[in-house]
C-alpha cells in the first residue's frame, strides 16, 4: 500500500493550491479517504473526508474554501485549496479510511 501526497509549496495568503495523492496497492475506490494536516506543535487535524461514494465533508475552518474530490480511474485523491490563510500552514497528508497514511506535503501560506 502506498499513498504519496504532492502539490504543496509556498503561497501568499488568498492564493490557491491543489494537492494530489497517488494511491497504489489497494482498491482505492472502495475506501473512504481523508486529508489531514499537522502544523508545528499542534495535533493532527482532520480537514476533509470523502466517502467511497463521493460524498464530502469538511472541518469548519475550511468550509467554503477547500474541496476534496477523487478520481477513481486514476487512483488519485485531490484537495483544492482556495483563499488560503496563514493558519492553513501545515504538512498535509492523505489517509485511507483505516488509518494508513502516506508521506505528506508541506503547505506554507505567507501573510
Any overview of this molecule?
With 111 residues, this protein is mostly beta strands. Helix content is 0%, strand content 51%. The protein has strands spanning 2-6, 9-12, 17-24, 33-38, 45-50, 56-58, 66-71, 76-81, 90-96, 105-110. The strands form 2 sheets. It has a 6-stranded mixed beta sheet with strand order 2-10-9-4-5-6, with no helix packed on it. A 4-stranded antiparallel beta sheet has the order 1-3-8-7, with no helix packed on it.
List keywords for this structure.
111 residues; mainly beta; globular
Order of helices and strands: EEEEEEEEEE
Percent range for β-strand residues = over 45%
The main pleated sheet reads as: 6 strands, mixed
Shape: globular
Coarse structural class: mainly beta
Strand order across the largest sheet: 2-10-9-4-5-6
Q: Please tally the β strands and state the result.
A: 10
Stretches where pLDDT falls below 50 for ≥5 residues? none
What do the pLDDT scores average to?
97
Cα-based radius of gyration, to the nearest Å: 13 Å
Cα-to-Cα separation, first versus last residue: 37 Å
Number of helices: 0
> What proportion of the residues is helical, as a percent range?
under 10%
Amino acid at each position: 500500500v502506498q499513498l504519496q501526497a504532492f502539490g504543496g509549496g509556498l503561497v501568499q495568503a488568498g492564493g490557491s493550491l491543489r494537492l494530489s495523492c497517488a494511491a497504489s496497492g489497494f482498491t482505492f475506490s472502495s475506501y473512504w479517504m481523508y486529508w489531514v494536516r499537522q502544523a508545528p506543535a499542534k495535533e493532527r487535524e482532520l480537514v476533509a473526508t470523502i466517502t467511497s461514494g463521493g460524498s464530502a465533508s469538511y472541518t469548519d475552518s475550511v468550509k467554503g474554501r477547500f474541496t476534496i474530490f477523487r478520481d477513481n480511474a486514476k487512483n488519485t485523491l485531490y484537495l483544492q485549496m482556495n483563499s488560503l490563510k496563514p493558519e492553513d500552514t501545515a504538512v498535509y497528508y492523505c489517509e485511507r479510511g483505516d488509518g494508513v497514511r502516506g508521506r505528506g506535503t508541506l503547505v506554507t501560506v505567507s501573510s
